[in-house]
Amino acid sequence: MATKVSHFYVSILLLVLVHSFIAQSRTLKSSNTLEFLQNLEGSQKGQNVKGLKELKHHLKKLGYYPKDLQHDTDLSDDFDELFESAIKTYQKNYRLKVTGSLDSDTIKEIMIPRCGVPDPINHDPSKRTGRTEHGNKSSKFHAVSHYSFFGGTPKWPASKFHLTYTFSSSVQVTIDMQELRSACSRAFQKWADVTQFTFQEVSEGSPADIVIGFQRGDHGDGDPFDGPGNILAHAFSPTDGRLHYDADEKWSTNPSTDESDLESVAVHEIGHLLGLGHSMDQNSIMFAEIPAGAIKRDLNQDDIDGIRTLYSN
Fold it and tell me: What is the DSSP string of 90-146?
């Protein structure tokens, strides 16, 4: 009898340990994929620091390395001149102190959740950046615009100002479909209110100009998601029409401090679908970053100026 009791308690203990291990694994899996950056704080040019290679991959994906750097094998853990230049450009774009080193402010900025579309960066110093100034030449006052466009300035033709959209995901998520549809409907209306575009949802499986869905990891579009944390979503320039949410993120229409807002991200990604790149105005919808728990659903003047400039003709 004692032996049976002993085996019973051993079995219970094993179940508790297994449950604890699974819970711990889930916690680790849901942590920010860039938490390793905290170990890189203070790194400077000339050093070799484990983890720099992963950060280089991340910055390359966001456009901070020249396009002629074709192979990821060219990246290493060396804090070299090219990496220092990438960090300085990043710091300048996000209005940080331009130190060229991985200081705490830079690390914190990189860890903020964001869109996976590359930032507007000009690697040719002889040409202007994506930022522009406009205004009356006779006036000494100029409004500074921070909006940008995709390379080649793609946009929808005048014959396609009525766009249809539908939903199609490659993975199942716990988000209520009606909540997603309502959030996206409101997001489309934000852009319809300031442009000549109109948007109409069509049934799943019907031909549509825009397809919205949840994807995970490498989902076949050449731009794999990175798991929980950091890259939230991405969309493609006209007239591609794909908008992808990362299924590994925590999504909500009323986000807590560790969740991302479906509607805020939808408004941002629709801007890409219409042809806008990222803005360097932190108050703009088209600013690349949005912290967990934040709600940012309204266009600001930079967004409106950008979309109206793109479709001015």
Answer: HHHHTT----SS--HHHHHHHTS-EESSPP-----TTS--S-EEES-TTSS--EEE-
Binding residues for Ca(2+): 209, 226-227, 246, 249
Structure tokens that stand for 306 in this block: 């950008």
Picking from 199, 208, 130, 126, the residue whose alpha carbon sits closest to that of residue 168 is 208
Instruction: Give pTM, 2 decimals.
Output: 0.85
Residue positions forming the annotated binding site: 115, 209, 219, 221, 226-227, 234, 244, 246, 249, 268, 272, 278, 286
Tell me which amino acid residue 103 is.
Answer: D
Closest CA to 144 of 124, 154, 130: 130
- Examine the residue annotation and report whether 269 is marked as an active-site residue of this protein: yes
Give the mean pLDDT of 51-58. 93
Per-residue model confidence as pLDDT tens digits over 165-202: 999 999 999 999 999 999 999 999 999 999 999 999 99
pLDDT in tens, 65-77: 987 765 666 789 9
Q: Which of 41, 259, 263, 269 is catalytic?
A: 269
